[in-house]
TrEMBL record:
Single annotated GO MF: transaminase activity
Species of the source: Microbacterium salsuginis
PANTHER family, per database record: DTDP-4-AMINO-4,6-DIDEOXYGALACTOSE TRANSAMINASE, TRANSAMINASE
The protein's name: Aminotransferase class V-fold PLP-dependent enzyme
Family label: Belongs to the DegT/DnrJ/EryC1 family.
Gene3D superfamilies per UniProt: Aspartate Aminotransferase, domain 1, Type I PLP-dependent aspartate aminotransferase-like (Major domain)
Cofactor(s) demanded: pyridoxal 5'-phosphate
Pfam assignment, any one: DegT_DnrJ_EryC1
Transferase listed as a keyword: yes
Protein keywords: Aminotransferase, Pyridoxal phosphate, Transferase
Length: 376
């Protein structure tokens, strides 16, 4: 089976992890500091990244930093993994789903604007497949609502929009380092912002809300050992072992991007001209780190094509079921039909294998099997 996505690990990654294991620190140590600096540099942020245990933890932390909670609303896309919305709902917010752009699958700024209310706290766009959201327009929507613009960049570390790196386009940005992502820490995520208030709250939340600085404590005279929980947080600290792997991976991020771009181009050349097959593309100004190769097929043919390709050893996937179709959201009163463009995208979408470890011969085999499935 040619896998839809997988990690790319080499000897330098193994050596980095072994070095961390042999150090005095397994968690909350210098490897985490280094990884946070590395992520911040790639993202073009003014402050160190806040490393956490997963992309989901990054979203939870970012929403909490943006003061999402009961009585607030988050406007976001349904064409994403459930965590983009679930983490806001877990904080007590109401999620308002807005439809997507038919060409990119990203949150449509006009639809987002139409979903804004006086309770909107965050506009959360997702960089579907690695293509950056329309940041200037979504930022304007957020500003008009006095809301925070959050970019869920789980797919897009290493992407640029008009020469600006993802991580510098929004008020706050979240990354994922799951094994199928563009670079991995095995499990992990990060929050990036240049806003000192958001940054301070994010760092506190990922470490139980602890305050160690005497000048910020309510009872600073307790003793030199004293620490206080000023606001509730969670243990989302990333271990040094995983951070060391992440820093090693980020050294090859440019190579990963180049290889993914070559695979993208090879697919486009090999799959062009098939009736009923719509290939992905990037809008003007976007320089994506291609995380997915998301094609669209006739809806009535999608299941047959999916099952045929799986049977032929091609590990295709579907990204994503609209979030509000999940029972947890249905039970909150969301109903199908809310975002028709996103729902039609889902009905037609199949993701072909896309990761830096794919060989040209494997890509060619995928092309051959897709053409065969279409009878082309």
């Amino acid at each position: 089976m040619i896998q839809y996505g997988r990690q790319s690990i080499d000897d330098s990654d193994v050596e980095a992890v072994v070095s961390a294991l042999r150090s005095d620190w397994l968690t909350t140590g210098p490897a985490v500091d280094r990884f946070e600096a590395d992520v911040s540099r790639i993202a073009g942020a003014m402050l160190p990244a806040v490393a956490v245990t997963s992309g989901t933890a990054a979203l939870h932390t970012a929403y909490r930093a943006a003061r999402v909670g009961p009585g607030t609303e988050v406007v976001t896309t349904p064409l994403t993994f459930a965590a983009t919305a679930a983490t806001a709902a877990l904080l007590g917010a109401t999620v308002r789903f807005a439809d997507v752009d038919e060409k990119t699958g990203n949150l449509d700024p006009d639809a987002a604007a139409a979903a804004v209310t006086r309770r909107t706290a965050v506009i959360a766009g997702v960089d579907y497949a690695g293509v950056p959201v329309d940041a200037s327009r979504l930022s304007a929507v957020a500003r008009s609502a006095d809301a925070v613009f959050l970019e869920d960049a789980a797919h897009s570390i290493g992407s640029f929009l008009n020469g600006v790196p993802v991580g510098s386009l929004a008020d706050i940005t979240t990354f994922s380092f799951f094994p199928t992502k563009n670079a991995t820490t095995a499990e992990g995520g990060a929050v990036v912002t240049s806003d000192s208030g958001l940054w301070d709250r994010a760092r506190a939340f990922r470490n139980h809300g602890l305050v160690r600085e005497a000048e910020r404590q309510r009872h600073p005279d307790e003793g030199p050992w004293h620490q206080e929980v000023a606001d509730f947080g969670l243990n989302y600290r990333m271990p040094d072992v995983l951070a060391a792997l992440g820093s090693s991976q980020l050294l090859r991020l440019t190579l990963f991007k180049s290889r993914r771009a070559a695979i993208f181009d090879r697919y486009r050349a090999g799959l062009s001209g098939i009736d009923g097959l719509s290939l992905p593309s990037a809008p003007s100004g976007a320089d994506p780190m291609w995380h997915l190769y998301a094609v669209r097929v006739p809806a009535e043919e999608r299941r047959r094509l999916f099952e045929t390709l799986r049977a032929d050893g091609i590990g295709v996937q579907v990204n994503y079921i609209p979030v509000y179709w999940h029972p947890a959201f249905e039970d909150l009163g969301y109903r199908r039909g809310l975002c028709p463009v996103a729902e039609e995208w889902y009905r037609r979408e199949i993701s072909l294998p896309m990761h830096a470890g794919l060989s040209d011969s494997e890509v060619d085999l995928v092309i051959e099997r897709v053409r065969k499935a279409f009878g082309s």
